[in-house]
Amino acid sequence: MPITFLFIVHRLLDSVWIESLRYFIGASGVALLCWLLATRIAHRRIQTRRATNTDRLREVRQSMWSMAVFAVVDLITVVLIVIGAIAFNDGPPVLTTILWQTAALIVMHDAYFYWMHRSLHHKTMFRLLHAVHHLSRTPTSWAAYSFATGEAAFEAVIVPLMIAVITIIAPAEPWAVFIFLGHQIARNAFGHAGFELAWPGFARSPWTGWLTTTVHHDLHHSEGRYNFGLYFTWWDSWLGTEHPHYHERFEAVVNRRETAGQEMPVHGAVSP
Hints:
- By secondary structure, the protein is mainly alpha-helical.
- It has one domain.
- Helix content is 59%, strand content 0%.
- It is built from 11 helices and no strands.
- Helix 1 packs across helix 8.
- The longest helix is centred in the first third of the chain and has 32 residues, at 5-36.
């Protein structure tokens, strides 16, 4: 694969287009779902404060900047392919390989995200890299990629490295990478949605309690000191960083009666 200036430009433009498409499909899809269900989930609103259009525009603008950073970091993938560290399966897809590679990518990404995210909450790192994301005290799905430059780079760099790891065992399945990236933006957008769509008992069930919920991540945005996990509650539970009242807050939201008089959320957020 010859790497020329024109190749790099085309690669960057393709990456910006693909990442932007993925972001807008994920964020707008969740926003549209919440809008369509507005009357049915009004009592599931998590915070008292409502995000404004100014908040949403800021989140979109910052997310678009992240797309540009992602595109630059994507060049790492090109380098890893050139040196043979990443090889994709160019034959018929293998279902078992797709399944284990998808699971491996999700588990690895969750572990990386927890430790990266927790590190970004160190005082110095927070000011330099993470404060931009926390401007969304009342987040919306559009905040999914609202990152400062440094955080965007940290968020993106792990993906080609994880693909390189699974390639050690077997050539990467394009479908595994596609499913992982779709899962990533969907869970990210739902985590910032502002409404809890899970059912009562979800957070305590042995079948689903290990999955994060919108309340789980919303508590992180409104209070900051807890709930650093992305897909799973494992690391927060193991290391004592889960919000001490997470389960109570979750049940308070999902068991709130669907009446105008019972619409008051269980916690608010300080207006930015």
